[in-house]
Automatic annotation (TrEMBL), chains A, B:
Residues 4-64 form the HTH tetR-type domain. GO terms for molecular function: DNA-binding transcription factor activity; transcription cis-regulatory region binding. It comes from the Bacteria. Residues 27-46 bind DNA. Keywords: DNA-binding. This is Transcriptional regulator BetI.
Length: 194, 194
């Protein structure tokens, strides 16, 4: 099967292009060049840059939600700090995609229903099954905050943290997220097996 | 002084127009009509809809940050639930402005430094003075989450909360925000007077 491989190449090239040039710098020609494909091959699968952007965001989200939904933390085999460090790191490595996602959400006024069901829902469901309904809101808030912190510019992050040391700021953010998350329903409840 | 009064009229009309028609529906002609002014008067102060939008967002933010920075909660004369209920209500009443703010931030990649210093900074500073440096991050996160929840569409809010009752969803959100905020440094520290 050549198709899935080609799609992977395109999405992976588009992700790199996005991180280097931002949403507005996304060009089919440059993505094709980076993937070692012809522009025609890219437009065959993704007719416009909007299609390409949507698919790239979806691919990142899928990776993020999979990581969260299947994290060993659920099995008590990892810590809250580890799952948050992993997720924050993933979001920071994909800052422009996180930004693109926020941009589209704010532009449209809401996440589309399809997008929603395909994305965070399985993670929130798993949280609710393990820790009761209040865990949904907690999961949503912590995920949102982690993404938002990852997407902050360096200057903003330093301003929010009130420090001039970027490494210290990242540590403060992780510690802050852990403290916030630690007040969640998992702190007082053992996971229920569904 | 006629000028401040005219500006107030324009901003107030623009706010109403925004809530009714959204960012993309903002028109100088309609704002002027609603304010009982000529389009020329509006464009004299705000040459483009972007100027008008920026000023309207700034005015809302100022109102929001003033409310937070001067809330009786700081004097121990109100509850965490009250300050969060007040802020959530204000943001919900200005959903389109909150959305416009998120949209611009996501588009630009960060809040401009000027905007930042003029906005949340005094509130975060007051928190840090009263409760130490960790209170900055807490304040920032709770404010961000409250705004984000206020801006969610009805369907999203119901999906996140896992309920079909909108009033119940709003109550769950407030309760969630109070629980989150209650884990902040104010829970264990009395406010220090600067």
């Amino acid at each position: 099967m050549e198709k899935p491989h080609t799609l992977d190449q395109i999405i992976s090239a588009a992700t790199e292009e996005l991180e280097e040039r931002g949403i507005n710098g996304l060009r089919v020609r440059l993505v094709a060049e980076r993937a070692g494909l012809s522009p025609g091959t890219v437009t065959h699968y993704y007719p416009t840059t909007q299609h390409l952007l949507d698919a790239t965001i979806e691919s990142f989200q899928q990776q993020a939600w999979d990581m969260l939904s299947n994290h060993p933390w659920f099995e008590g085999e990892s810590t809250l700090e580890q799952v948050l460090t992993d997720f924050y790191g993933l979001c920071r490595a994909n800052r422009e995609l996180v930004r693109a996602r926020f941009f589209l959400t704010a532009r449209e006024g809401n996440v589309s229903d399809t997008n929603w069901r395909q994305s965070l829902e399985p993670f929130l469901n798993r949280l609710a099954q393990a820790y009761g309904p209040a865990a949904r809101l907690y999961g949503h808030s912590i995920v949102l905050l982690t993404m938002r912190f990852a997407f902050h510019s360096k200057d903003e992050l330093l301003a929010i943290c009130g420090t001039k040391d970027l490494d210290a700021a990242h540590e403060m953010v992780i510690e802050h997220l852990v403290t916030l998350a630690a007040s969640g329903p998992w702190s007082t409840t053992s996971p229920r097996r569904a």
